[in-house]
Design a protein that fits this description.
By secondary structure, the protein is an alpha/beta fold. It has ten helices and 15 strands. It has two domains: about 160 residues, no CATH class; about 140 residues, no CATH class. The strands form four sheets. Strands 9-15-14-13-10 form a five-stranded mixed sheet. It has a four-stranded parallel sheet with strand order 2-1-5-8, sandwiched between helices. A four-stranded antiparallel sheet has the order 4-3-6-7, with helices on one face. The relative contact order is 0.11.
Length: about 300
C-alpha cells in the first residue's frame, strides 16, 4: 500500500509555530511507522505552497524550524521524497464540493478506482481528520464516488498495520513469511532446527517480525545510500539505553565466543555474530552479522533463546 501526504490538510489552521511543529512531528512519527512496515509516504510538490498559517507557507514554516529538524524535513521534501508523478487523468475531482484537481487526494482516489490500494496521511488538527475521505470524480460521461482511507495519528496506523499482519501459527510459517517479505535479508537454512524444540509463541513471533522489518528497511537504505534514514534508524534502534539492537559485552564475547560463532550461510567459513536483536519475552534473540562491509549481505544466522545465559 502507498500513502500520500495530504497537503490539503494544511489550510492556515496553525496560530503558532509551536503548534505547527507539534503537528509536523506527529506526521514524521507516522512516516516512521509507514516506513517500518515497508511502505512509502509520497509527497505532492504543491506541499511547499500549502498554507500553514495566514502568513506562512509550508516551505516558510520549515525554514523557521530548529536546525536539525529543518535539515531533515528540507531533505525529505526537496530530495529524498518519494514524490508523486504528475496527474495524468481527466475529469474533475471534488471533496465537499471543492475542486481538488492536482491534489494528492485526487491522485489517491484515481488510484483506488483503478484497483490500487492508496491511503492519505493528514496533518492534525485539520478539516480532514475523518476517514474515509469521499471524493467525487466527474467525467463527460460519468460520475463516481470513491472512498480513500485516511490517517492522522500514529496509534491508528499501528492498529491498521497490526490488523494486516498474517495469521502465523508455527515457526515454519514465520520463517516462510519472513523469507518472502523481508527480501533484503538472507536467512540461514538451519533456523527452523533452532526454533523447532521451542513452544510456538505469538508474542515472540510478533516481535521477531517487528525487528526483521527494521533490519530489512535498514539494509535497503544501506543499498540505496539513504543516509538520512540510515542515521535515523541507527539513532532510534541501535543507540541508547533501551536500544533494540545491541552488541554483546566484551566479557560475553570472550566467554561465549564459540556459541556466538555460526556457520556462514553461503560459504565454507564461520561468522562471529555477537550483535543481536532483543526479544524480552522468554529472552529470545536474533543474531546477525553487524557491523558488516557494504558489499556483504545482511545474514540472519540465529533466532532462538538467549545464548549467553549464565
Amino acid at each position: 500500500m502507498d500513502f500520500y501526504l495530504n497537503e490539503l490538510s494544511l489550510h492556515s489552521q496553525f496560530i503558532s509555530a509551536d503548534l505547527f511543529e507539534d503537528s509536523l512531528k506527529a506526521v514524521l512519527n507516522c512516516k516512521e511507522v509507514i516506513n517500518k512496515f515497508d511502505h512509502n509516504l509520497y509527497i505532492n510538490y504543491s506541499l511547499h505552497q500549502s498554507r500553514v498559517s495566514a502568513e506562512l507557507t509550508f516551505k516558510d514554516a520549515v525554514f523557521k524550524l530548529e536546525n536539525n529538524l529543518k535539515r531533515y524535513v528540507a531533505n525529505w521534501i526537496n530530495k529524498a521524497g518519494p514524490f508523486l508523478d504528475d496527474n495524468l487523468h481527466d475529469g474533475n475531482f471534488t471533496f465537499n464540493n471543492t475542486n481538488i484537481n492536482g491534489s494528492s487526494l485526487a491522485h489517491a482516489a484515481f488510484k483506488n478506482y483503478n484497483s490500487s490500494s492508496t491511503s492519505e496521511l493528514s496533518f492534525t488538527p485539520s478539516n480532514f481528520n475523518l476517514s474515509p475521505l469521499t471524493v467525487e470524480w466527474s467525467t463527460k460521461t460519468d460520475k463516481k464516488s470513491i472512498d480513500v482511507l485516511n490517517f492522522w495519528g500514529e496509534d491508528e496506523l499501528q492498529s491498521f498495520f497490526a490488523a494486516q499482519q498474517p495469521k502465523i501459527g508455527s515457526w515454519e510459517s514465520l520463517l516462510n513469511y519472513s523469507k518472502d517479505n523481508y527480501t533484503n535479508l538472507y536467512f540461514a537454512d538451519n533456523l527452523l532446527e533452532i526454533l523447532r524444540p521451542e513452544p510456538f509463541s505469538k508474542a515472540i513471533t510478533e516481535r521477531v517480525m517487528e525487528l526483521l522489518s527494521v533490519l530489512n528497511e535498514f539494509e535497503g537504505c544501506l543499498k540505496n545510500k539513504n543516509i538520512e534514514r540510515i542515521n535515523e534508524i541507527r539513532s532510534n534502534y541501535f543507540m541508547g539505553e533501551n536500544a533494540c539492537f545491541t552488541d554483546e559485552s566484551q566479557g560475553n564475547k570472550r566467554k561465549f565466543k564459540k556459541e556466538l560463532t555460526f556457520k556462514h550461510p553461503e560459504k565454507q567459513t564461520r561468522l562471529f555474530c555477537p550483535f543481536h536483536g532483543k526479544i524480552k519475552h522468554l529472552y529470545f534473540r536474533i543474531h546477525f552479522n553487524w557491523p558488516k562491509k557494504t558489499s556483504e549481505k545482511l545474514y540472519i544466522v540465529y533466532i532462538g533463546p538467549k545464548i549467553t545465559k549464565e
